[in-house]
């Protein structure tokens, strides 16, 4: 499906997205998903997983502020998603900063996410190489992460989305590059995490590769538009939400190569 068709379908279906995300991202992720055209719910208690994940269009799992109870809930939710053919998206935020987080990311990977969305340093480290990541921020170029992305796609049968100045997405066979956006995007905390939540929304309405491309294009187009009127990272964040809502399906094609 084209990005145009994907966004049209997203808004027509307004899918429910189970978002398991971090304390930093909680509010902006919900606002981004709403502005774009889907319906977010942040649910973390393990006691609710069996009932809730099963009725959602997609699950998104983000390890940005991980703790043991959340990790247990995330693993349980990923299993429910897999058992019910519900797509799920993994965001391995800063997974290389500690042995605890590295192991958590490997255990979640073993549960076979449909899509992995991460910055270049996180993708490089996920493939076992040493990158230049600094906590949640990337220190590597997207180009440097492309071979790692292809290897991860082959190894895990997942769609890999690498974000940065020009995004790269591959399922091991197909690939796309998505351009646009603004230098203020990495200056707004948790915008990548919010993108992961929205990618779940897109995955609920179409094939995983097409979902990743459409979501990345939606962000790039809205980011470019917001940068025209913003004066810095603060006003950019506000303008970006408006631009996500204002983006028209036909606008998305221009961002994708
Ligand atoms: N220098 C940049 N120019 C334009 N867009 C960017 C730039 N850096 C990141 N982005 C965009 O910001 C969003 C989040 O990506 P990124 O900052 O790489 O993720 P994370 O927040 O997980 O580190 C993506 O849509 C990406 O395309
Ligand atoms: C700053 C920070 N610390 C833990 S999670 C988080 C947010 C990271 O967000 P993003 O990956 O979108 O930059
Ligand atoms: Mg991130």
TrEMBL record:
GO-annotated molecular function: ATP binding; hydroxyethylthiazole kinase activity; magnesium ion binding
EC number: 2.7.1.50
Superkingdom of the source species: Bacteria
Protein role: Catalyzes the phosphorylation of the hydroxyl group of 4-methyl-5-beta-hydroxyethylthiazole (THZ).
Binding site for ATP: 117, 163
Reaction(s) catalysed by this chain's protein: 5-(2-hydroxyethyl)-4-methylthiazole + ATP = 4-methyl-5-(2-phosphooxyethyl)-thiazole + ADP + H(+)
Pfam families linked to this entry: HK (PF02110)
Pathway: Cofactor biosynthesis; thiamine diphosphate biosynthesis; 4-methyl-5-(2-phosphoethyl)-thiazole from 5-(2-hydroxyethyl)-4-methylthiazole: step 1/1
Single biological process term from Gene Ontology: thiamine biosynthetic process
HAMAP family: Thz_kinase (MF_00228)
Enzyme class: transferase
Gene behind this protein: thiM
Residues the entry annotates as binding substrate: 42, 190
Annotated transmembrane regions: none
Listed cofactors: Mg(2+)
Family of the protein in this entry: Belongs to the Thz kinase family.
Key words, A-Z: ATP-binding, Kinase, Magnesium, Metal-binding, Nucleotide-binding, Thiamine biosynthesis, Transferase
UniProt protein name: Hydroxyethylthiazole kinase
């Amino acid at each position: 499906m084209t990005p145009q068709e994907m966004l049209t379908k997203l808004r027509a279906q307004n899918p429910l997205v189970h978002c398991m995300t971090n304390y930093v991202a909680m509010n902006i992720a919900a606002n981004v998903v709403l502005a774009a055209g889907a319906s977010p719910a942040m649910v973390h208690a393990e006691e609710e997983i069996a009932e809730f994940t099963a009725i959602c269009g997609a699950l998104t799992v983000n390890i940005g502020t991980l703790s043991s109870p959340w990790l247990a809930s995330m693993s349980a939710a990923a299993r429910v998603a897999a058992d019910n053919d519900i797509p799920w998206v993994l965001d391995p935020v800063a997974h290389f900063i500690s042995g605890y987080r590295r192991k958590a990311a490997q255990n979640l990977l073993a549960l076979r996410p449909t899509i992995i969305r991460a910055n270049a340093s996180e993708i490089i480290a996920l493939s076992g190489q040493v990158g230049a990541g600094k906590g949640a921020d990337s220190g590597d170029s997207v180009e440097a992460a492309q071979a790692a992305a292809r290897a991860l796609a082959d190894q895990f049968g997942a769609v890999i989305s690498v974000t940065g100045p020009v995004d790269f997405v591959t399922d091991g066979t197909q690939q796309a590059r998505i351009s646009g956006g603004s230098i203020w995007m990495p200056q707004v905390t948790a915008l990548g995490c919010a993108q992961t939540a929205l990618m779940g929304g897109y995955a609920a309405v179409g094939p995983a590769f097409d979902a990743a491309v459409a979501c990345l294009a939606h962000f790039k187009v809205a980011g470019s538009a917001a940068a025209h009127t913003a004066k810095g990272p603060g006003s950019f964040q506000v303008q970006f939400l408006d631009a996500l809502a204002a983006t028209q399906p036909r606008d998305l094609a221009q961002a994708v190569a």
